[in-house]
Prior knowledge:
This protein has helices at 16-38, 43-55, 100-110, 118-127, 141-151, 157-161, 221-227, 229-238, 243-258; strands at residues 4-12, 76-82, 87-94, 115-117, 168-173, 179-185, 206-209, 213-219, 262-267, 273-277, 281-288, 291-297, 302-305. By secondary structure, it is α+β, with helices and mostly antiparallel strands. Helix 7 (221-227) packs across helix 9 (243-258) and helix 8 packs across helix 9.
Amino acid sequence: MLPVVVVHGGAGHIPKERSDRSMEGVRSAARAGYVVLQGGGSSMDAVVEAVTHLENDPSFNAGCGSVLNTKGEVEMDAFVMDGKALGSGAVSAVRNIANPIQLARLVMDKTNHLCLTAEGASQFARSMGVPEVPQESLITEYSRMRWKKNLAPDANPVECQIGKMGTVGAVAVDSEGNVACATSTGGILNKMEGRVGDTPCIGCGGYADNKMGAVSTTGHGEAIMKVVLARLILFHMEQGQSAEAASDLGLAYMKSRVNGLGGVVTVDPQGHWAACFSSLQMAWAAAQKDTVHYGLYKGEHFTQSINDP
């Protein structure tokens, strides 16, 4: 079964003209993470590589391509967790960083803290030699168009979320059975300045524990935070549920309790995995045993050789 990496490109509604690019993006990210695992890299190395891949793809709402806040600026959150010793690192409301997921890992590896925010995170990045990038380099024409559309007095905020893929993330198990998760996001469209969602919050945007498994979440951040979705799913796995059943139970509870939609990718330490969502779509891909699995709609499950383009 081992190793395996599973990625998601965000839950929501993806217009047909953007769906092909999102599918290509998640397959490419899964392959990138799997190459790390095949080379003997750790599950943490693999999820950071996969999410870095997604942050660099302007099709997704993370890194380059992040949605804009009310002021038309990018503020990003990211989170990593290692299931071996429950090591964790997160950053929130960072602005001029191309790959917030790599900064989150540095928080885990180089500090005694779990989360750094805004200017404090920027100061830490500079101290670590992480280059700052111009804000404009992270903003796509598509993001700016969605932002302007949502500023209109008659704008429908729900409608305006459509067409922008959500949070990205990955989970993995390496050949030694260690699990890890990584999650990164630009947040929600036209959010208030300083708004922080579920992504950098431990147990919400993700959780990893070798005793149970690992989860990365996507969806409406405020709903995910209210039910502590990632940890809730792992609680069900602790009680003996499979990765898929536990994921479905957690998502169903979030929908019934707070009317929240979302999606998750989940693995257990044996390499069983699931990609589940209550939203209309979620671009996902998994790489295992030289095969890439992928899908976009409910019930969709395609496969191809890992060597196919």
